[in-house]
Amino acid sequence: MTYGISPTVGIDFGTTNTVVAIAGADGEAVILRFDAPTGELTAFRSTLSFQLQHAVDDRPPERIVEAGPWAIDAYVEDALETRFIQSFKAFAASAAFTDTVIDNRRYKFEDLLSAFLLRLRHHGGEGMATLPPRVIVGRPVTFAGGAPDEQLALKRYETAFSRLGFSDIRYAYEPVGAAFFFARTLETDANVLVADFGGGTSDFSIVRFEQSPEGLRSTALARSGVGVAGDAFDYRIIDQLVSPELGKGGLYRTFGKALPIPQRYYAAFARWDQLALLRASRDMRDIRALARTAMEPEKLDRLIEILDDNHGYALYQAVSSLKMDLSLHEEATFSFVAGSVRIERSVTRTQFEGWIAPELAAIKDAVDEAMDRSGLASDQIDRIFLTGGTSFVPAVRDIFHRQFGPERIETGGEFESIASGLALIGRETNLDVWSEARSSSG
Question: Do 8-166+413-433 and 187-411 show the same overall fold?
């Protein structure tokens, strides 16, 4: 694959997925494709696995490091012998997270990110065989966590991306990357609101774009963000449809009394990879005991089977399918079948929207916050660009339809616009307008 003179790389390292784009001298961005076990893909899951390979002949046991869909396969194959890590971007700005220990080796955040990037590069094949010096890395408007340290996060990023071989590393806000991608279609000056919905966060930027003899100029007017997005929607589906069929809200008998089954067993369903940890915990012994005294023992038996047979990933695939179907239809069927467990139920879009009402309100509040900071009225926003998988949810789009009107809203490239925009930013003459390098004092 030929990218022309001085290509630049844009990397959208997300909580759920990572997308890579390369822009060449022709001014176009090409999304990197990965030949994964399930077929070609562009969204590379932001996951890591450290799978124990037992000793063979005279070779000592070792951990095989994988990333993306290969990491998921390793974990599904043998959950108890695999250390699986996902959503680790959430710890980038956390001073409280210093390291994690895997086989007596300490991994700092930058070590985890380096391991992930090296495997991503490996699976990128020819497209990442020879990397140019410059990379534009996406960063959230607000890093996750209660008291995020922005400079700490960027320092950790710097270390990891340097190890990959980049020498010119710059950062741009993720919604700004999306804005740049979309703004190429603008023919007049415009105030633009970009809404970027990821797996863990939703970010909003309002940017003023102006045509000039030197090209497109931008002025950032306001930003806001909230730690709510697709992952929270998934958990609402689990909590409403699945957990009650696994015993949540039920009772068990002890000493002649009927007591509620502890809710903490179902908190692990917020992330499917945590289910294997529940299986390996002391709680599992208690769950097996409860199944013998529960008033509806068949429900606890389903929970035990899901945990014992590691059906967590299959469960979340069923959840994703329902969410996608409800984006297209007013009613859809949730269907989870694994082993002897079968949970099927018809769900209307209205029901789903009721479940995610708190998240929708939080997203609406964040949009309002960005508008307030910009000092603009709704009718002064000329274009609204929606990007990210959660932007497909009709209730999310309705937030913008009601406030701005559907005629000003544009979509497209929902999963690839940020990475493409970042790569194209890297070809700009005045990079400081769109991106920044981490200060040496940071």
Answer: yes
